[in-house]
Amino acid sequence: MNDTIINENITVILKRIENTCIKVNRNPNDVKLLLATKTVSAENIITAIKLGQKLIGENKVQEIKEKFEMLQPFEHKKHFIGHLQTNKIKDILKYNVTCIQSVDRYDLAQKLNERLLFENKNIEIFIQVNTSNETSKFGVEPEKTIDLIKQISNLKAIKIKGLMTIGLFSAEDYKVRSCFKLLKEIQQEVINRNIPNVEMKELSMGMSGDLEIAIEQGATIVRVGTAIFAQRIYTDSYYWNEKLEIR
Ligand SMILES: *Cc1c(COP(=O)(O)O)cnc(C)c1O
């Protein structure tokens, strides 16, 4: 992909973010753009970093590993946004991932915490909530989110910073909106409970096709891939289906 196209695509996305913020009376500085860089080459990611984009998100530990050396000289922050298997915990901690957005179960958090304590490190996480009720997607059930957060809040090496969700894929805006609205409601409920060691500032929601609706509902991070780096060769289910592993 050439640099000009990436530049143009980023400009369009930033404009979409800005326009939506203006429309719903929010400060555009309160919405961060995260580049969803699965399958994107290190070269193209570096182009985006040089254009001022400092936040990237990867779905596979293997891909983080493959791009790590090349990206290392360029200042950026890396989040993990894919499904994390417990047997990859040791691996993921090698590559300066600052936040795991996809924690959705206690045993994962607990094993992560154990390893972090062993390595004398700590990490930020978001809790991924399944707001669309689709069985194919990961995330804790909405009704179980508070309990999970309470449990995880006791783990010393982990700091909960917010929530993440993937909205329903639907052409009907109201259905997509209800997912994001639900995440916002859960956020408020968590804030009301005042749970020690839990911060709830971040709401990671909205992608290429639905970022406007997410920002309208309070997103602080939107995760954009396709609209910047063009179509991927794999379908999204490839990344969200535990049974499939790409090499
Ligand atoms: C791929 C991906 C995105 C970005 O989706 P696009 O539609 O390409 O913008 C966002 N979040 C997650 C978890 C993803 O896997």
Number of strands: 8
- Helix/strand-derived category reads alpha/beta
Helix content: 40-55%
Shape descriptor reads globular
Radius of gyration: 17 Å
Beta-strand residue fraction:
15-25%
From N to C, what is the helix and strand string?
Answer: HEHEHEHEHEHEHEHEHH
End-to-end Cα distance, whole Å, is 22 Å
The small-molecule ligands in this entry are: pyridoxal-5'-phosphate
The main pleated sheet reads as:
8 strands, parallel
- Total number of helices: 10
Which whole number gives the mean pLDDT?
Answer: 94
Strand order across the biggest sheet? 7-6-5-4-3-2-1-8
User: Which spans of ≥5 residues are poorly predicted at pLDDT below 50?
Assistant: none
3D structure, described in words:
There is one protein chain. An 8-stranded parallel β-sheet has the order 7-6-5-4-3-2-1-8. The chain is globular. Helices cover 41% and strands 18% of the residues. Helix 3 (61-71) links the parallel strand 2 and strand 3. The chain has 247 residues and is of the alpha/beta class. Helix 2 (42-50) packs across helix 3. The longest helix has 21 residues, at 3-23. It contains 10 helices and 8 strands. Residues 36, 38, 59, 81, 166, 207-209, 223-227, 239 line the site of pyridoxal-5'-phosphate.
